[in-house]
Known about the structure:
37% of the residues lie in helices and 16% in strands. By secondary structure, the chain is an alpha/beta fold.
Amino acid sequence: MKTCIFFAQTPYQVVVSLSMSYSLxxxxxxxxxxxxxTVNKQLFKxxxxxxxxxxxxxxxxxxxxxxxxxxFLAVSEVKYLVNNLxxxxxxxxxxxxxxxxxxxxxxxxxxxxxxxxxxLVEEGLSIYKSGRGVSLSRVMINTxxxxxxxxxxxxxxxxxxxxxxxxxxxxxxxxxxxxxYRPDIVVGVNKKEFLYLGFDFKNLVSAIFLSDDxxxxxxxxxxxxxxYLGQPLxxxxxxxxxxxxxxxxxxxxxxxxxxxxxxxxxxxQENKIKYQKIGFSDIIYSDVPSxxxxxxxxxxxxxxxxxxxxYTASLELGAPGIYLYRLANIDVNVPFNDRxxxxxxxxxxxxxxxxxxxILK
Length: 361
Protein backbone atom coordinates (compact mmCIF):
# COMPACT_ATOMS: atom_id res chain seq x y z
CA MET A 1 0.00 0.00 0.00
CA LYS A 2 1.22 3.48 -0.84
CA THR A 3 1.93 5.85 2.05
CA CYS A 4 1.32 9.58 1.44
CA ILE A 5 2.84 12.00 3.95
CA PHE A 6 1.99 15.71 4.08
CA PHE A 7 4.22 18.13 6.01
CA ALA A 8 2.05 21.14 6.94
CA GLN A 9 3.34 24.23 8.76
CA THR A 10 0.44 26.70 8.40
CA PRO A 11 -3.38 26.48 8.54
CA TYR A 12 -3.47 27.02 4.77
CA GLN A 13 -1.10 24.09 4.23
CA VAL A 14 -3.28 21.94 6.51
CA VAL A 15 -6.34 22.78 4.38
CA VAL A 16 -4.55 21.91 1.14
CA SER A 17 -3.26 18.69 2.73
CA LEU A 18 -6.77 17.72 3.82
CA SER A 19 -8.20 18.54 0.41
CA MET A 20 -5.58 16.47 -1.39
CA SER A 21 -5.95 13.66 1.18
CA TYR A 22 -9.66 13.44 0.46
CA SER A 23 -8.95 12.98 -3.25
CA LEU A 24 -6.17 10.44 -2.67
CA UNK A 25 -8.25 8.29 -0.34
CA UNK A 26 -11.25 8.48 -2.66
CA UNK A 27 -9.32 7.61 -5.82
CA UNK A 28 -6.85 4.99 -4.64
CA UNK A 29 -6.04 2.72 -1.74
CA UNK A 30 -3.39 4.49 0.30
CA UNK A 31 -2.40 5.40 3.82
CA UNK A 32 -2.37 9.15 4.44
CA UNK A 33 -0.46 10.87 7.23
CA UNK A 34 -0.48 14.60 7.90
CA UNK A 35 2.43 15.89 9.95
CA UNK A 36 1.03 18.96 11.69
CA UNK A 37 3.83 21.42 12.45
CA THR A 38 1.59 24.48 12.92
CA VAL A 39 2.01 26.49 16.08
CA ASN A 40 -1.46 26.18 17.64
CA LYS A 41 -2.87 23.13 15.81
CA GLN A 42 -6.34 24.69 16.08
CA LEU A 43 -7.49 23.52 12.68
CA PHE A 44 -7.65 19.89 13.71
CA LYS A 45 -9.81 20.43 16.78
CA UNK A 46 -13.30 18.93 16.42
CA UNK A 47 -12.78 18.20 12.72
CA UNK A 48 -14.17 15.04 11.16
CA UNK A 49 -10.98 13.50 9.91
CA UNK A 50 -12.18 11.65 6.85
CA UNK A 51 -13.99 8.79 8.56
CA UNK A 52 -10.98 7.76 10.61
CA UNK A 53 -8.78 6.85 7.66
CA UNK A 54 -6.44 9.78 8.12
CA UNK A 55 -3.57 9.79 10.60
CA UNK A 56 -2.22 12.96 12.18
CA UNK A 57 1.23 13.25 13.72
CA UNK A 58 2.24 16.28 15.77
CA UNK A 59 5.84 17.40 16.08
CA UNK A 60 7.54 20.50 17.45
CA UNK A 61 5.88 23.88 17.76
CA UNK A 62 9.03 25.75 16.77
CA UNK A 63 7.80 28.41 14.32
CA UNK A 64 9.31 28.14 10.86
CA UNK A 65 11.01 31.54 11.11
CA UNK A 66 13.34 30.21 13.83
CA UNK A 67 15.65 28.94 11.10
CA UNK A 68 18.71 27.95 13.11
CA UNK A 69 16.69 26.23 15.86
CA UNK A 70 14.82 24.26 13.22
CA UNK A 71 18.12 23.34 11.58
CA PHE A 72 19.40 21.82 14.83
CA LEU A 73 16.07 20.02 15.35
CA ALA A 74 15.76 18.73 11.78
CA VAL A 75 17.64 15.46 12.22
CA SER A 76 15.99 14.57 15.54
CA GLU A 77 12.52 15.47 14.24
CA VAL A 78 12.88 13.25 11.18
CA LYS A 79 14.23 10.37 13.25
CA TYR A 80 11.27 10.79 15.63
CA LEU A 81 8.84 10.63 12.72
CA VAL A 82 10.51 7.57 11.20
CA ASN A 83 10.36 5.71 14.52
CA ASN A 84 6.77 6.68 15.33
CA LEU A 85 5.20 6.43 11.89
CA UNK A 86 6.81 3.05 11.18
CA UNK A 87 7.08 3.85 7.48
CA UNK A 88 8.48 0.61 6.11
CA UNK A 89 7.08 0.71 2.60
CA UNK A 90 9.34 1.72 -0.26
CA UNK A 91 6.33 3.32 -1.94
CA UNK A 92 6.19 6.65 -0.12
CA UNK A 93 5.02 10.03 -1.45
CA UNK A 94 6.06 13.09 0.55
CA UNK A 95 4.23 16.40 0.00
CA UNK A 96 5.93 19.58 1.23
CA UNK A 97 5.15 23.28 0.74
CA UNK A 98 8.53 24.88 1.47
CA UNK A 99 11.74 23.38 0.16
CA UNK A 100 13.75 26.03 2.04
CA UNK A 101 12.59 25.00 5.52
CA UNK A 102 15.30 22.95 7.32
CA UNK A 103 12.94 20.23 8.61
CA UNK A 104 11.04 19.92 5.31
CA UNK A 105 14.36 19.90 3.47
CA UNK A 106 15.84 17.12 5.59
CA UNK A 107 12.60 15.13 5.44
CA UNK A 108 12.71 15.47 1.64
CA UNK A 109 16.23 14.12 1.57
CA UNK A 110 15.21 11.17 3.77
CA UNK A 111 12.32 10.21 1.46
CA UNK A 112 14.15 10.95 -1.78
CA UNK A 113 17.25 8.93 -0.87
CA UNK A 114 15.49 5.93 0.68
CA UNK A 115 11.86 5.56 -0.13
CA UNK A 116 10.05 7.35 -2.89
CA UNK A 117 8.84 10.55 -4.49
CA UNK A 118 8.90 14.13 -3.18
CA UNK A 119 6.23 16.62 -4.29
CA LEU A 120 6.48 20.40 -3.84
CA VAL A 121 2.95 21.81 -3.55
CA GLU A 122 2.39 25.39 -4.63
CA GLU A 123 1.76 27.65 -1.65
CA GLY A 124 0.55 31.09 -2.55
CA LEU A 125 2.07 32.68 -5.62
CA SER A 126 5.64 33.05 -4.40
CA ILE A 127 6.71 30.03 -6.44
CA TYR A 128 6.05 32.05 -9.61
CA LYS A 129 8.70 34.63 -8.73
CA SER A 130 11.87 34.21 -10.75
CA GLY A 131 14.17 35.45 -8.00
CA ARG A 132 15.73 38.11 -10.18
CA GLY A 133 16.77 41.24 -8.40
CA VAL A 134 17.69 39.54 -5.12
CA SER A 135 20.07 41.78 -3.17
CA LEU A 136 23.70 40.84 -2.60
CA SER A 137 23.15 40.86 1.17
CA ARG A 138 20.31 38.34 0.81
CA VAL A 139 22.50 36.10 -1.35
CA MET A 140 25.24 36.22 1.29
CA ILE A 141 22.81 35.41 4.14
CA ASN A 142 21.35 32.49 2.19
CA THR A 143 24.84 31.20 1.44
CA UNK A 144 25.70 31.24 5.15
CA UNK A 145 22.46 29.43 5.96
CA UNK A 146 23.10 26.89 3.23
CA UNK A 147 26.56 26.08 4.63
CA UNK A 148 25.12 25.89 8.16
CA UNK A 149 22.40 23.42 7.15
CA UNK A 150 24.94 21.33 5.25
CA UNK A 151 27.17 21.11 8.34
CA UNK A 152 24.29 20.29 10.74
CA UNK A 153 22.13 17.94 8.67
CA UNK A 154 24.30 16.92 5.76
CA UNK A 155 21.55 17.99 3.35
CA UNK A 156 21.79 20.68 0.68
CA UNK A 157 19.18 23.43 0.91
CA UNK A 158 18.11 25.89 -1.76
CA UNK A 159 16.14 29.03 -0.93
CA UNK A 160 14.54 29.32 -4.36
CA UNK A 161 11.14 27.65 -4.63
CA UNK A 162 11.27 24.52 -6.73
CA UNK A 163 15.05 24.42 -7.02
CA UNK A 164 16.03 21.40 -4.94
CA UNK A 165 17.58 18.12 -5.99
CA UNK A 166 15.29 16.30 -3.56
CA UNK A 167 12.08 17.42 -5.32
CA UNK A 168 10.72 15.24 -8.12
CA UNK A 169 7.33 16.79 -8.96
CA UNK A 170 5.84 20.29 -8.60
CA UNK A 171 2.08 20.54 -8.04
CA UNK A 172 0.65 23.85 -9.26
CA UNK A 173 -2.69 25.57 -9.85
CA UNK A 174 -1.50 26.48 -13.32
CA UNK A 175 1.36 24.26 -14.52
CA UNK A 176 1.51 25.89 -17.96
CA UNK A 177 1.83 29.40 -16.48
CA UNK A 178 4.45 28.17 -14.03
CA UNK A 179 6.52 26.74 -16.87
CA UNK A 180 6.52 30.20 -18.48
CA TYR A 181 7.36 32.15 -15.32
CA ARG A 182 9.85 29.62 -13.97
CA PRO A 183 11.89 28.18 -16.86
CA ASP A 184 14.64 27.35 -14.36
CA ILE A 185 12.60 24.36 -13.13
CA VAL A 186 11.54 23.24 -16.60
CA VAL A 187 14.91 22.58 -18.22
CA GLY A 188 18.41 21.62 -17.13
CA VAL A 189 19.50 19.94 -13.91
CA ASN A 190 16.51 21.34 -11.96
CA LYS A 191 13.91 19.99 -14.38
CA LYS A 192 10.74 18.78 -12.63
CA GLU A 193 7.54 17.07 -13.59
CA PHE A 194 4.30 19.05 -13.15
CA LEU A 195 0.85 18.15 -11.87
CA TYR A 196 -2.35 20.21 -11.50
CA LEU A 197 -3.51 21.33 -8.03
CA GLY A 198 -7.29 21.62 -7.81
CA PHE A 199 -9.73 22.28 -4.97
CA ASP A 200 -12.83 20.13 -4.64
CA PHE A 201 -14.64 22.82 -2.64
CA LYS A 202 -17.87 20.92 -2.03
CA ASN A 203 -16.22 17.76 -0.76
CA LEU A 204 -13.54 19.68 1.12
CA VAL A 205 -16.11 21.55 3.16
CA SER A 206 -18.56 18.70 3.76
CA ALA A 207 -15.84 16.25 4.74
CA ILE A 208 -13.65 18.44 6.90
CA PHE A 209 -15.02 21.74 8.12
CA LEU A 210 -17.67 22.62 10.62
CA SER A 211 -20.76 24.58 9.66
CA ASP A 212 -19.54 27.46 11.85
CA ASP A 213 -16.73 28.10 9.38
CA UNK A 214 -19.14 28.47 6.48
CA UNK A 215 -21.59 30.59 8.49
CA UNK A 216 -18.90 33.29 8.65
CA UNK A 217 -19.95 34.26 5.13
CA UNK A 218 -23.53 33.03 5.19
CA UNK A 219 -24.97 36.56 5.29
CA UNK A 220 -23.36 37.26 1.90
CA UNK A 221 -24.85 34.20 0.24
CA UNK A 222 -27.60 36.08 -1.57
CA UNK A 223 -25.86 39.36 -2.33
CA UNK A 224 -23.04 40.68 -4.44
CA UNK A 225 -19.98 41.42 -2.37
CA UNK A 226 -16.28 42.16 -2.75
CA UNK A 227 -14.00 40.14 -0.47
CA TYR A 228 -10.74 41.98 0.21
CA LEU A 229 -8.06 39.39 1.03
CA GLY A 230 -5.51 40.81 3.42
CA GLN A 231 -1.80 40.09 3.22
CA PRO A 232 0.98 40.92 5.71
CA LEU A 233 2.67 43.31 3.28
CA UNK A 234 3.72 46.06 5.66
CA UNK A 235 4.38 43.51 8.41
CA UNK A 236 6.91 41.79 6.11
CA UNK A 237 8.19 45.18 4.86
CA UNK A 238 7.21 44.48 1.27
CA UNK A 239 5.68 47.96 1.28
CA UNK A 240 5.26 50.60 3.96
CA UNK A 241 2.00 50.77 5.90
CA UNK A 242 1.38 54.24 4.43
CA UNK A 243 1.65 52.87 0.89
CA UNK A 244 -0.47 49.82 1.66
CA UNK A 245 -3.11 52.02 3.28
CA UNK A 246 -3.12 54.45 0.32
CA UNK A 247 -3.79 51.71 -2.24
CA UNK A 248 -6.52 50.06 -0.15
CA UNK A 249 -8.27 53.40 0.34
CA UNK A 250 -8.27 53.95 -3.44
CA UNK A 251 -9.95 50.57 -3.89
CA UNK A 252 -12.48 51.20 -1.11
CA UNK A 253 -13.44 54.57 -2.60
CA UNK A 254 -14.09 52.91 -5.98
CA UNK A 255 -16.16 50.09 -4.45
CA UNK A 256 -18.24 52.48 -2.34
CA UNK A 257 -18.88 54.77 -5.30
CA UNK A 258 -20.49 51.77 -7.01
CA UNK A 259 -22.51 50.86 -3.87
CA UNK A 260 -20.79 47.50 -3.48
CA UNK A 261 -20.50 45.84 -0.07
CA UNK A 262 -16.93 45.05 0.98
CA UNK A 263 -15.82 42.51 3.59
CA UNK A 264 -12.20 42.09 4.66
CA UNK A 265 -10.67 38.65 5.32
CA UNK A 266 -7.73 39.15 7.66
CA UNK A 267 -4.55 37.14 7.04
CA UNK A 268 -3.36 35.20 10.14
CA GLN A 269 -0.01 37.06 10.11
CA GLU A 270 -1.51 40.54 9.93
CA ASN A 271 -1.98 43.13 12.63
CA LYS A 272 -5.57 42.55 13.83
CA ILE A 273 -6.45 46.24 14.10
CA LYS A 274 -4.86 47.69 10.99
CA TYR A 275 -8.00 47.47 8.83
CA GLN A 276 -10.10 49.15 11.50
CA LYS A 277 -7.88 52.20 10.99
CA ILE A 278 -8.86 52.32 7.32
CA GLY A 279 -12.57 52.04 7.94
CA PHE A 280 -13.50 48.45 7.12
CA SER A 281 -16.74 47.86 9.02
CA ASP A 282 -16.93 44.15 8.26
CA ILE A 283 -13.83 42.07 9.04
CA ILE A 284 -13.49 38.27 9.23
CA TYR A 285 -10.82 37.33 11.76
CA SER A 286 -10.99 33.53 11.35
CA ASP A 287 -7.77 31.63 10.54
CA VAL A 288 -9.79 29.40 8.20
CA PRO A 289 -8.32 30.00 4.71
CA SER A 290 -10.32 32.09 2.26
CA UNK A 291 -10.77 29.12 -0.09
CA UNK A 292 -13.00 27.53 2.54
CA UNK A 293 -15.04 30.69 3.13
CA UNK A 294 -15.73 31.02 -0.60
CA UNK A 295 -17.76 27.81 -0.38
CA UNK A 296 -20.48 29.69 1.51
CA UNK A 297 -20.81 32.44 -1.09
CA UNK A 298 -22.49 32.68 -4.49
CA UNK A 299 -21.84 36.02 -6.23
CA UNK A 300 -18.59 37.55 -5.10
CA UNK A 301 -15.48 39.35 -6.31
CA UNK A 302 -12.09 39.04 -4.66
CA UNK A 303 -9.56 41.84 -4.38
CA UNK A 304 -5.99 41.69 -3.09
CA UNK A 305 -2.52 42.94 -3.83
CA UNK A 306 -1.53 39.50 -5.18
CA UNK A 307 -3.11 36.86 -2.93
CA UNK A 308 -3.33 33.29 -4.22
CA UNK A 309 -6.95 33.30 -3.01
CA UNK A 310 -7.85 35.70 -5.82
CA TYR A 311 -6.32 33.45 -8.45
CA THR A 312 -7.80 30.26 -6.95
CA ALA A 313 -11.32 31.76 -6.85
CA SER A 314 -11.08 32.85 -10.50
CA LEU A 315 -9.64 29.53 -11.65
CA GLU A 316 -11.77 27.10 -9.63
CA LEU A 317 -15.02 29.02 -9.05
CA GLY A 318 -15.08 31.50 -11.93
CA ALA A 319 -15.17 34.43 -9.49
CA PRO A 320 -13.78 37.69 -10.91
CA GLY A 321 -10.83 39.23 -9.12
CA ILE A 322 -8.71 42.38 -8.90
CA TYR A 323 -4.98 42.64 -8.23
CA LEU A 324 -3.67 45.92 -6.79
CA TYR A 325 0.09 45.25 -6.69
CA ARG A 326 0.95 47.53 -9.61
CA LEU A 327 -0.49 50.53 -7.77
CA ALA A 328 2.17 50.01 -5.09
CA ASN A 329 4.96 49.25 -7.60
CA ILE A 330 5.44 45.77 -6.15
CA ASP A 331 7.69 43.64 -8.33
CA VAL A 332 5.84 40.34 -8.52
CA ASN A 333 5.26 38.05 -11.50
CA VAL A 334 1.99 36.23 -10.85
CA PRO A 335 -0.34 34.34 -13.20
CA PHE A 336 -3.76 35.68 -14.09
CA ASN A 337 -6.63 35.00 -16.50
CA ASP A 338 -9.41 36.93 -18.22
CA ARG A 339 -11.36 37.14 -14.94
CA UNK A 340 -8.58 38.89 -13.04
CA UNK A 341 -8.20 42.64 -13.60
CA UNK A 342 -4.96 44.49 -12.86
CA UNK A 343 -5.22 48.30 -12.80
CA UNK A 344 -1.92 50.07 -13.48
CA UNK A 345 -2.88 53.50 -12.12
CA UNK A 346 -5.42 54.80 -9.60
CA UNK A 347 -7.82 56.07 -12.24
CA UNK A 348 -8.25 52.51 -13.56
CA UNK A 349 -9.45 51.02 -10.27
CA UNK A 350 -13.06 52.13 -10.73
CA UNK A 351 -13.13 50.53 -14.17
CA UNK A 352 -11.64 47.30 -12.80
CA UNK A 353 -14.41 47.05 -10.20
CA UNK A 354 -17.04 47.74 -12.88
CA UNK A 355 -15.55 45.06 -15.14
CA UNK A 356 -15.54 42.53 -12.32
CA UNK A 357 -19.15 43.37 -11.45
CA UNK A 358 -20.22 42.92 -15.07
CA ILE A 359 -19.11 39.27 -14.93
CA LEU A 360 -21.51 38.65 -12.04
CA LYS A 361 -24.52 39.88 -14.03
